Amino acid sequence: MYIRHNLNNGVRIVAEEIKYVNSVSLGIWVKAGSRNENINNNGVSHFIEHMLFKGTKTRNAKEIASAIDKIGGQLNAFTAKECTCFYAKVLDTHFDIALDILSDMFFNSAFSEKEIEKEKGVVLEEISMYEDSPEDLVHDIFTQSVWSDNPLGMPILGTEDTLKGLGRNDIINYFDKNYTPENLVISVVGNFEEKYVIQQIERVFSGYNPAKTARENAPKPVFAPKHNHKKKDTEQAHLCMGFNGIELGNKYTYPLLVMNNIFGGAMSSRLFQKIREEKGLAYSVFSYPSSYTDCGILSIYAGMKPNQLDYVMELIQEEIKEIKKNGITEDELYDSKEQIKGSYILGLESTSGRMISIGKSELLLDKIYSPKEITDFIDAVTMDDINHVIDLIFNTDEMGVAIIGPNKNNTVRQGR
């Protein structure tokens, strides 16, 4: 049973009691990510994530880390396209410490000029590390290509130029505009007393009433089937190709997950079996859907020898053609449902996994589905649903492509 409680200032609390565990996970969710940025401040959401660990009015960075380390807890954060999350996992007896540390970071971060300049160096190294990982970078290049005129296509880390251009005032102005009560969700999962936890969160967050600052809504991107080849002297060619997808909460979300699992989302999938197991052309090959509040995308990745790039692309398009022509089998439908349900339930066996699940759902969808509801959604997927999703997604005349590799002369044959 989920607990949902709204504070008078707009901050939302979502929680789930699990009495048989000895931990509690607490997260502060902010509805702000790289999608809320522009070409001048790209990367500021991720940079703020870093800065909140760099010291407050009463604690320096080491004291923040030590406060959690000495109780055996975990303290971390992540930035995504549409949200940022700061979270801690501790023994249930240390909930107050977790709340104190996270709220101190949130409300009292110093954003000192000295720390800002030092942290720019750290994030620049993170960007360089990412540039040295073409198997990761190609996904960013793909989204930058197909959503080139929209902030959703921009990299979460930002770029070297935008990062160097960020000043303290830019950071604080972005924080003030986006880190507002109506954009906050506090998510708690584990062994706790409901009344006490709600009271403590209210005590800390109910007085948070910053001055209202206008925030523009991020525009909906338009998918453009562009091709982009980044020339790089790598041992492999890295390919990311894909199609327009569906938004969060769409009624075909679970049919898409089931279909993708069959197509390229698992070791038993058609892509993996054909390209890796049967042909031996790639170590890594997979597909995955990404959904946002008003749009989505389906991406396909493969890494192979540069001289096999055209052949692998042809094989992928043959598998697309096959699934469009003949669909899937009843056995594939059943097995895929069972696999997705199993993965989902196993992912909820930790308090942090559940905290992330309900926090993100409340923040982006304004609702929470129970595990029973979600498994029922999966079970309800029909062959007609799958056929609809296949027709909806796999439009080979509207396919985007990104490649990182040494050969710039490869082309894509479309409409096969």
Can you describe this structure in just a few lines?
This protein has 15 helices and eleven strands. The protein is α+β, with helices and mostly antiparallel strands and 416 residues long. The strands form two sheets. A six-stranded mixed beta sheet has the order 1-2-6-3-5-4, sandwiched between helices. A five-stranded mixed beta sheet has the order 7-11-8-10-9, with helices on both faces.
Lay out the secondary structure.
Layout: E1 2-6, E2 12-17, E3 23-30, H1 44-51, H2 61-69, E4 74-79, E5 84-91, H3 95-108, H4 113-131, H5 134-146, H6 160-165, H7 168-178, E6 184-190, H8 194-205, E7 227-231, E8 237-244, H9 253-263, H10 270-278, E9 285-291, E10 296-304, H11 309-326, H12 330-347, H13 351-365, H14 371-379, H15 383-393, E11 400-405
Parallel strand pairs: 2-6, 7-11
Antiparallel strand pairs: 1-2, 3-5, 3-6, 4-5, 8-10, 8-11, 9-10
Helix pairs in contact: 1-7, 3-8, 9-12, 9-15, 10-11, 12-14
Structure description:
With 416 residues, the chain is α+β, with helices and mostly antiparallel strands. Helices cover 44% and strands 18% of the residues. Strand 4 (74-79) and strand 5 (84-91) form a beta hairpin. The model is unreliable at 410-416 (pLDDT under 50).
pLDDT averaged residue by residue = 95
State which percent range the strand residues make up.
15-25%
Which value, in Å, is the CA radius of gyration?
23 Å
Total domain count: 2
Distance between the termini: 49 Å
Major sheet: arrangement of strands: 1-2-6-3-5-4
CATH superfamily of the largest domain: Metalloenzyme, LuxS/M16 peptidase-like
- N-to-C series of helices and strands: EEEHHEEHHHHHEHEEHHEEHHHHHE
**Quaternary class:** single chain
Class from secondary-structure proportions:
alpha+beta
Specify the biggest β-sheet: 6 strands, mixed
The count of DSSP E runs of length 2 or more, i.e. the number of strands, is 11
What name is given to the CATH topology of the largest domain? Cytochrome Bc1 Complex, Chain A, domain 1
In the predicted model, the low-confidence regions spanning at least 5 consecutive residues are 410-416
Q: What is the CATH class of the largest domain?
A: Alpha Beta
Question: Which descriptor suits the 3D outline?
Answer: globular
Q: What is the helix tally?
A: 15
CATH architecture of the largest domain: 2-Layer Sandwich
Helical fraction: 40-55%
